């Protein structure tokens, strides 16, 4: 389950980034400044998320808290169409220049969700590490799953999803997906001591 | 060690490859990976023509006859001028979105020296290329603004008589220059009875073409389409007035402009290809919006019509 969560969160981050370029273009164009802003804001969000996630993971980590961490960006995505238009229009009117306008807009629209999605990786690592002997393997697996999710998210979004539905519908869909994932997580109370005796056998090799 | 050397040689060989192989008759004058595209300027020494293009031969953005740089080489640039026959007056304020080799504005300013022309072009290297290789010159009345076309239109303080939409990247129009919202912004920058003309390339009837017809129809009260004879281009002419000129009146007006402004292209012949947009309508096509505009994917899907 946790591995699946990491995969989906990885996919959602990059899918959101692709859709982000579409969100920005009407008000900020598609210049290199827009792409540069978009990518750097996502990376800033993820690195802040990794840092915070590591800190949080050391304070009584639980899958219940993880579920709340995932619900937060889910709610932001669900309501994204309500605030993205007005915020973009407002920043367009302010006109901070060709570089600052898209950078500011990206920060307001994309930074917070990517911080939360960044928290997921180190947090799940802590939840899944049951033995120092295999911690490298666990972390490596999670990194790979998260990045593999990102690849899938990027490809599916740019190759298919964009023809199927509008940008706003897709972002709301991602919100639904995250919340649908977080709700069972809330009640599951996963941690490694339970996991490796559980029927899934996910963690059977960690002790 | 040997393997590494082989790999290095292979990498270097790949790097030094041109965008694509040149014909023996083609001479490379300039190439560059700009911020937005691969730009290549070549001379065809047999045809005596010069082109600027992207990665493929089909992605030609503009060109000139080497012996007659003031003539219009490409059909789509000639066809665009038919839209002048939809105006009741001489255009005074004109906006080009997309510069290319600068052939259209150069040709236009030669015939309408009193018009004030703005050109929005996102790629600064394209401006340099137009100036250096295609005899394009800025002047008091003709200014290039290095800016995203959408942003230039949104921020424009003045209104225009004639707006020409011809911004391409390789073989496609950037999605934010195809949407209903963009066309409405364009419309809001038109004077009363102003005219918009767009070059829509569609090698075969694809879904993108279908959607463009529906989107322009939604944004403007009237749309007339002219089909290229020798090229895969369609010229969309949209007007904001309450009524649009019929075919006879456009032909008559084209004839008049042709002789008054000394056009060396057959405007009247182009005008005779007048087709109301209803001919190309396919009701199943989706209108492109800022929210939904899969431009690249639609270009590779066959039209739903027929």
Q: Strand arrangement, largest sheet of chain B? A: 7-6-5-8-9-11-10-12
Helix content bin of chain B: 25-40%
Strand content of chain B: 15-25%
User: What coarse outline of chain B follows from CA principal-axis ratios?
Assistant: globular
Q: CATH superfamily assignment of chain B?
A: Vaccinia Virus protein VP39
Task: Enumerate how many helices of chain A there are, as a single number.
Answer: 8
CATH topology of chain B: Rossmann fold
Descriptive report:
The complex is a heterodimer of chains A (207) and B (306). With 207 residues, chain A is mostly helical. Chain A has a single domain, classed as Growth Hormone, Chain: A (Up-down Bundle). Chain A is built from eight helices and no strands. In chain A, helix 1 runs parallel beside helix 4 and helix 1 crosses helix 6. The longest helix of chain A is centred in the C-terminal third of the chain and has 30 residues. Chain A starts with a helix and ends in a 12-residue tail after the last helix. The C terminus of chain A is likely disordered. In chain B, a hairpin with a 6-residue loop joins strand 3 and strand 4. Chain B starts with a helix and ends in a 7-residue tail after the last helix. In chain B, helix 6 runs parallel beside helix 7. Chain B has a single domain, classed as Rossmann fold.
């Amino acid at each position: 389950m946790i591995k699946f969560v990491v995969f989906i969160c990885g996919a959602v981050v990059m899918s959101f980034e692709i859709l982000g370029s579409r969100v920005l273009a009407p008000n900020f164009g598609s210049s290199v400044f827009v792409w540069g802003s978009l990518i750097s804001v996502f990376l800033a969000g993820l690195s802040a998320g990794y840092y915070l996630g590591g800190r949080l993971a050391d304070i009584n980590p639980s899958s219940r808290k993880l579920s709340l961490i995932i619900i937060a960006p889910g709610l932001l995505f669900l309501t994204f169409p309500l605030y993205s238009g007005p915020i973009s229009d407002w920043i367009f009117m302010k006109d901070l220049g060709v570089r600052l306008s898209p950078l500011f807009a990206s920060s307001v629209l994309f930074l917070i969700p990517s911080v939360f999605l960044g928290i997921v990786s180190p947090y799940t690592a802590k939840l899944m590490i049951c033995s120092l002997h295999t911690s490298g393997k666990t972390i490596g697996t999670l990194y790979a799953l998260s990045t593999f999710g990102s690849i899938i998210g990027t490809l599916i979004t740019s190759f298919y999803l964009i023809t199927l539905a509008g940008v706003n519908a897709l972002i709301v869909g991602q919100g639904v997906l995250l919340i649908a994932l977080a709700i069972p997580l809330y009640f599951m109370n996963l941690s490694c001591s339970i996991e490796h005796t559980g029927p899934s056998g996910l963690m059977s090799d960690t002790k | 060690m040997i393997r590494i050397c082989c790999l290095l040689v292979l990498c270097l060989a790949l790097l030094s490859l041109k965008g694509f192989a040149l014909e023996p008759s083609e001479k490379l004058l300039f190439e560059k990976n700009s911020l937005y595209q691969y730009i290549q300027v070549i001379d065809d020494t047999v045809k005596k023509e010069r082109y600027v293009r992207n990665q493929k031969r089909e992605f030609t953005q503009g060109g000139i006859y080497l012996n007659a740089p003031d003539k219009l080489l490409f059909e789509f640039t000639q066809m665009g001028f038919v839209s002048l026959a939809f105006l009741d007056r001489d255009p005074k304020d004109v906006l080009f979105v997309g510069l290319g080799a600068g052939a259209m504005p150069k040709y236009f300013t030669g015939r309408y020296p009193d018009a004030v022309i703005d050109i929005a072009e996102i790629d600064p290297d394209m401006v340099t290329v137009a100036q250096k290789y295609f005899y394009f010159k800025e002047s008091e009345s003709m200014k290039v603004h290095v800016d995203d076309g959408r942003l230039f239109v949104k921020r424009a303080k003045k209104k225009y008589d004639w707006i020409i939409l011809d911004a391409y990247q390789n073989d496609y129009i950037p999605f934010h220059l195809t949407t209903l919202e963009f066309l409405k912004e364009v419309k809001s920058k038109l004077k009363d009875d102003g005219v918009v003309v767009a070059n829509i390339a569609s090698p075969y009837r694809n879904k993108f073409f279908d959607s463009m017809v529906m989107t322009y129809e939604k944004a403007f009260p009237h749309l007339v389409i002219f089909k290229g004879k020798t090229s895969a281009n369609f010229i969309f002419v949209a007007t904001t007035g309450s009524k649009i000129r019929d075919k006879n009146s456009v032909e008559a007006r084209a004839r008049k402009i042709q002789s008054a402004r000394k056009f060396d292209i057959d405007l009247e012949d182009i005008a005779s290809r007048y087709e109301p947009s209803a001919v190309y309508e396919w009701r199943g096509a989706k209108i492109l919006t800022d929210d939904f505009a899969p431009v690249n994917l639609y270009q590779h899907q066959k039209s739903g019509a027929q």
